[in-house]
Amino acid sequence: MLSPEEWQALLLSLRVAGWATFWGLIAAIGFAWLLARHRFPGRILLDALLHAPLVLPPVVTGFALLLIFGVEGPVGGWLDRALGVRLAFTPAGAALAAGVCAFPLMLRAARQAIGAVDPALEDAARALGAGPVDRAVTIVLPLAAPGLLAAAVVGFAAALGEFGAVITFAASIPGETQTLPLAIYAALQVPGGEGAALRLSLIALAVALVGLIASEALLAFGRRRAAR
Amino acid sequence: MTLSVAIRRPLDAFSLDIVFDAPADGLTVLFGPSGAGKSATLAAIAGLAPTSSARVDLNGVSLDALPAERRRIGFVHQQAHLFPHMSVERNLRYGWMRATETRPIAWDAVIGVLGIGHLLHRAPRDLSGGERQRVALGRALLSQPRLLLLDEPVSALDAARRDEVLGFIAALKERFGLPILYVTHSAEEARRLGDWLVRIEQGRVVAQGPTAELLPARELAGEVIAPGRIRVDGRDLDMPGIDAPAGSIVRISW
């Protein structure tokens, strides 16, 4: 049904989106906690910066990543010299680009999930002898979990579909960085490639639908569990 | 045996300046109109609210320097705030497991006095209001508190449940003997449960003393002279709602 190249694009896409979601979710939970619970100077500015990839053209995000994480950039240069690690034009780079673009969506969902936990429940836990880490682990995270899982699913779907930032920062190297959207684009450049493009598009659509339905189901489950 | 409290805390409409001493055995009622600052006082004693200055001494032990989670102060509100993702039993065990020193308040005793043994495997959302409050009381007791704060624990319940839960509170007061601070604006509850009363208005303590002195029960006795008709204080009144037989005693209290 799928040619070896098409399989390769699908599996690479799933791996790239998987890593993007994993790291993105950890960062999203961290920042969501910080923004939801603490007041500090510059909070609004940080909030805006973290949402920037949502409103910037993805190509601009990719270009910004090149400037910072490219071999000649401040962080990329250090990584290359100190650890021998390069990100631009690598699968890890593709994951970084996809993750950065999906991050604001995960941040918003995580913040909502954490913010929805009734503070009175935390006060009750506190009066019963639970310290801050204890409360986070036994009360807040379990109650926020369905919403956080939904954040992961939405993030995964967004990372899977990311095009502009990935092609700018990681290029379109088959087997390395040519994820599904890039493979579809490449197929359309070739005469007679519409068949391949269509097949890949249907795969992408199927993955996206499964993701959205799973996300909705998780949110509904979370609402029922947290009732009263 | 004394509970000594001095709280200063700015609120919206006025600032709280509460100073009182209460006997450390028995139930002390914080009594006053809504908005007087009674709940704010409890929150400050529990360590759950920012204060300008706070002193909470229980039998010479200073509690105000401790963070809320180490004060061992049980707190039950109008709403039970049971953890929805845990069964009743896990809710009860939450404080129990975090009480690392001795546990003078026994598991079976609490379950028995509050009659919640049959609820252990239920989910909080399947309980009635009265059952939830009893579980909340159990949960607080099992955390081995040295002081129990009850903030209008029955005001969200209907009259029948209210009476039932008040009965349970009286029972646990008898059985466990720990100091209790009880906030209410109901004179009836104050008289029923309170040994000592601290009257709070507009953020200040305006009176404190034994409940019987500060809130004497006012009552008139009368008699049913015919169905739907009573004689009270020399007057005859039509009361079609009273269907007791002639000769029955009627008591009106407020």
UniProtKB/TrEMBL annotation, chain A:
<dbReference type="GO" id="GO:0005886">
    <property type="term" value="C:plasma membrane"/>
</dbReference>
<dbReference type="InterPro" id="IPR035906">
    <property type="entry name" value="MetI-like_sf"/>
</dbReference>
<feature type="domain" description="ABC transmembrane type-1">
    <location>
        <begin position="10"/>
        <end position="215"/>
    </location>
</feature>
<keyword id="KW-0997">Cell inner membrane</keyword>
<keyword id="KW-0813">Transport</keyword>
<comment type="function">
    <text>Part of the binding-protein-dependent transport system for molybdenum; probably responsible for the translocation of the substrate across the membrane.</text>
</comment>
<keyword id="KW-1003">Cell membrane</keyword>
<keyword id="KW-0500">Molybdenum</keyword>
<protein>
    <recommendedName>
        <fullName>Molybdenum transport system permease</fullName>
    </recommendedName>
</protein>
<feature type="transmembrane region" description="Helical">
    <location>
        <begin position="83"/>
        <end position="107"/>
    </location>
</feature>
<dbReference type="InterPro" id="IPR000515">
    <property type="entry name" value="MetI-like"/>
</dbReference>
<keyword id="KW-0812">Transmembrane</keyword>
<dbReference type="GO" id="GO:0015098">
    <property type="term" value="F:molybdate ion transmembrane transporter activity"/>
</dbReference>
<feature type="transmembrane region" description="Helical">
    <location>
        <begin position="48"/>
        <end position="71"/>
    </location>
</feature>
<dbReference type="InterPro" id="IPR011867">
    <property type="entry name" value="ModB_ABC"/>
</dbReference>
<keyword id="KW-1133">Transmembrane helix</keyword>
<comment type="similarity">
    <text>Belongs to the binding-protein-dependent transport system permease family. CysTW subfamily.</text>
</comment>
<feature type="transmembrane region" description="Helical">
    <location>
        <begin position="136"/>
        <end position="160"/>
    </location>
</feature>
<keyword id="KW-0472">Membrane</keyword>
<dbReference type="Pfam" id="PF00528">
    <property type="entry name" value="BPD_transp_1"/>
</dbReference>
<feature type="transmembrane region" description="Helical">
    <location>
        <begin position="200"/>
        <end position="221"/>
    </location>
</feature>
<feature type="transmembrane region" description="Helical">
    <location>
        <begin position="16"/>
        <end position="36"/>
    </location>
</feature>
TrEMBL record, chain B:
<dbReference type="GO" id="GO:0016887">
    <property type="term" value="F:ATP hydrolysis activity"/>
</dbReference>
<dbReference type="InterPro" id="IPR027417">
    <property type="entry name" value="P-loop_NTPase"/>
</dbReference>
<keyword id="KW-0547">Nucleotide-binding</keyword>
<dbReference type="Pfam" id="PF00005">
    <property type="entry name" value="ABC_tran"/>
</dbReference>
<dbReference type="InterPro" id="IPR003593">
    <property type="entry name" value="AAA+_ATPase"/>
</dbReference>
<protein>
    <recommendedName>
        <fullName>ABC transporter domain-containing protein</fullName>
    </recommendedName>
</protein>
<feature type="domain" description="ABC transporter">
    <location>
        <begin position="1"/>
        <end position="227"/>
    </location>
</feature>
<dbReference type="InterPro" id="IPR003439">
    <property type="entry name" value="ABC_transporter-like_ATP-bd"/>
</dbReference>
<dbReference type="InterPro" id="IPR017871">
    <property type="entry name" value="ABC_transporter-like_CS"/>
</dbReference>
<dbReference type="InterPro" id="IPR050334">
    <property type="entry name" value="Molybdenum_import_ModC"/>
</dbReference>
<dbReference type="GO" id="GO:0005524">
    <property type="term" value="F:ATP binding"/>
</dbReference>
<keyword id="KW-0067">ATP-binding</keyword>
